[in-house]
């Protein structure tokens, strides 16, 4: 099994994802939101690159069955139903709804790997399920969404947790960056809070009042689902 890690969305190139099995990771908070929404009964997630695209896509659905969600710079987009907090995506709010979401980093990453063979959604919330899902794949790319075209340690440590699980059951060949992340994770594998104490994006969210979101998103394997993106219509189920 070969494993590569893309550090952030803008670092992706077509040849890095072409015909690969890709796991897109945006721990804080897009993929955590997607996992929570689908676990709470949402019908599907549609990732849009921009707010304008999200609004345009919403016209394809009956108004009663679609919700607009997302953020720019961690702030809910004006006129949207919800922001980018997983705590908003309750069963009461999202059950049987199509959610069209656009975020600063995560949905950009998802839309940049449409040439992959398979695209899955990953976060701390479903690490164990991701490991089980991809354990028999040969060529894996862990795609960290990052923060504003920079690497984000929360995504990197999540990728490292997946790698750590895979190396226990498979013969794995890692790229240098994947090995670096794994080594970092293994310095303190049982204490995410300590590993991420200096993470820029995590601390920025705390400063903006999203401490509860951070705590929620750092839970290990809360969900046993691995959503997959339909690469033709770009919906996630």
Folded structure, characterized:
With 237 residues, the protein is α/β, with parallel strands linked by helices. It has one domain: Alpha-Beta Complex (putative 2-phosphosulfolactate phosphatase). Helix content is 35%, strand content 17%. The chain contains 11 helices and 9 strands. The protein has helices at 14-17, 30-39, 51-58, 91-94, 106-110, 127-134, 153-167, 176-186, 192-195, 200-207, 211-217, and strands at 2-6, 21-25, 44-47, 66-72, 75-76, 98-102, 118-122, 139-144, 173-174. The strands form 2 sheets. Strands 7-2-8-1-9 form a 5-stranded parallel beta sheet. It has a 4-stranded mixed beta sheet with strand order 3-6-4-5, with helices on both faces. Strand 4 and strand 5 (75-76) form a beta hairpin. The longest helix has 15 residues, at 153-167. It is globular and about 50 Å long. The two termini are 26 Å apart. The mean pLDDT is 97.
The fold-level CATH name is putative 2-phosphosulfolactate phosphatase
- Which series of helices and strands comes N to C? EHEHEHEEHEHEHEHEHHHH
- Tally the structural domains: 1
Helix fraction by DSSP (H/I, runs of at least 4): 25-40%
Mean pLDDT, to the nearest integer, reads 97
- Shape designation: globular
By CATH, the architecture is named Alpha-Beta Complex
């Amino acid at each position: 099994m070969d494993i590569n890690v893309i550090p952030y969305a803008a670092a992706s190139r077509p040849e890095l994802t072409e015909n690969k099995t890709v796991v897109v990771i945006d721990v804080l908070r897009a993929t955590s939101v997607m996992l929570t929404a689908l676990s709470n009964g949402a019908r599907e997630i549609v990732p849009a690159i921009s707010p304008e695209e999200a609004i345009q896509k919403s016209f394809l659905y009956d108004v009663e069955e679609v919700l607009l969600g997302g953020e720019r710079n961690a702030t809910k987009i004006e006129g949207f139903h919800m922001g980018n907090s997983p705590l908003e995506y309750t069963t009461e709010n999202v059950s049987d709804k199509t959610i069209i979401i656009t975020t600063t980093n995560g949905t950009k990453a998802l839309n940049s790997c449409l040439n992959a063979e398979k695209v899955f959604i990953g976060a701390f919330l479903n690490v164990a399920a991701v490991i089980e899902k991809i354990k028999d794949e040969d060529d894996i790319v862990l795609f960290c969404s990052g923060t504003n075209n920079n690497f984000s340690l929360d995504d990197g440590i999540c990728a490292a947790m997946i790698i750590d699980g895979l190396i226990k059951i498979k013969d794995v060949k890692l790229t240098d960056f994947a090995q670096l992340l794994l080594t970092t994770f293994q310095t303190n594998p049982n204490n995410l809070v300590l590993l991420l104490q200096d993470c820029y994006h995590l601390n920025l969210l705390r400063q903006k009042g999203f401490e509860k979101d951070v705590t929620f998103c750092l839970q290990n394997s809360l969900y046993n689902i691995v959503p997959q993106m339909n690469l033709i219509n770009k919906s996630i189920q």
